[in-house]
TrEMBL record:
Protein name: Endonuclease/exonuclease/phosphatase domain-containing protein
Classification via PANTHER family: CARBON CATABOLITE REPRESSOR PROTEIN 4, ENDONUCLEASE_EXONUCLEASE_PHOSPHATASE DOMAIN-CONTAINING PROTEIN
Domain of life where this protein originates: Eukaryota
UniProt-annotated stretches for the region Disordered: 1-22
Compositional bias ranges of the Low complexity kind: 1-16
InterPro entries with a match to the protein in the record: CCR4/nocturin_mRNA_transcr, Endo/exonu/phosph_ase_sf
Amino acid sequence: MAPGRSPERGSSSSRSASDEEQPLVTVVRAELVRGHRPVVVSEVPVYIGLKDRDGRQFEDKGNCQHVQYRWLRGPVVKPCFYHPHKQSMIKDVAKTHLCYCSKECFLKGYNTIPKTQWGTKDDDDVDKEMLAEWVEVATTRSYCPSKEDIDRPLRLQITPLTKGGIKSEKDGMTITTGTVIPTPQEARCRRTLTNQRGQIHADWLNKQFKVMNWNVLADLYANESVYPYCEKWALSWTWRKHLIMKELKSMAVDIITLQEVQKDAYDEWFRPQLLDAGYEGVFQQKKRDPIFHRGKYTAEGCATFYKTTRFRRVDKQVIDYDRETSTEIRNTGDDQRCQNLFWKEISL
Ligand SMILES: [Zn+2]
């Protein structure tokens, strides 16, 4: 970025004299992506919008040299006894010595929690922690919380720098997050179907190949109005994409077929990640009009990956159900069913 002089700075000599002290960029937007709660071992998703002296606005993904990032970890804030994902607002210091997120939870706890589950008075390090200072944990744009951050809020300070690399006191911004939560337990119950009855042994396995199919739920559709019962952070793509990838790799299959893969997710996430794991892929977008999503037009489709050690691609065929319905399937005479099932659907 060239530190050009903006027109409004004009020819005023007094302004020019202090030019060296002016930051080269200003922070115009800084926010956590969609009310995200920081989660252990998952990069905290933040959006940083900067503006240079010519008034050009851009997102900094970590390449801008004229801004300094600083992550701090705050004092422990215990979660609610009833709601492990909510920060507590009230601490009962008289009876249960537990923390609660609301008056309702406090009253419920005060009146119903048996003595065996009460906290101890000696366990009052929370109050001491409250006085503790914020401690620096990183000086990079991105930060991946660790176990030490659990139950602590994080703070990101974004400070623009002057031409001489001096920190500018103004034009910066600060984001403070909710408390960091532990990595949620995975609910794993995958059923593998095989064409083998009885014992599976190495010799038989050598002659077989494993296929997995998954509708990954495109970020496009993962919104709070459709999934109001889901925590916002758990719906975010930055969080889900890591879990999905972990799952894909852990299955160690030979062919992966995926639905609802966004074009950008295929290019930026699935393809490079799976290439590293030994897979080649093909992608086909649905024929629907792209949808405006997070600042750009995107569409989803099907992706198929195959282990290059076992398979190679000889052809790519796309089945367009719209076209199919007009011939074979319409012959069933059930037009309504055809429309519901196959509208702009494809197979790869
Ligand atoms: Zn609560």
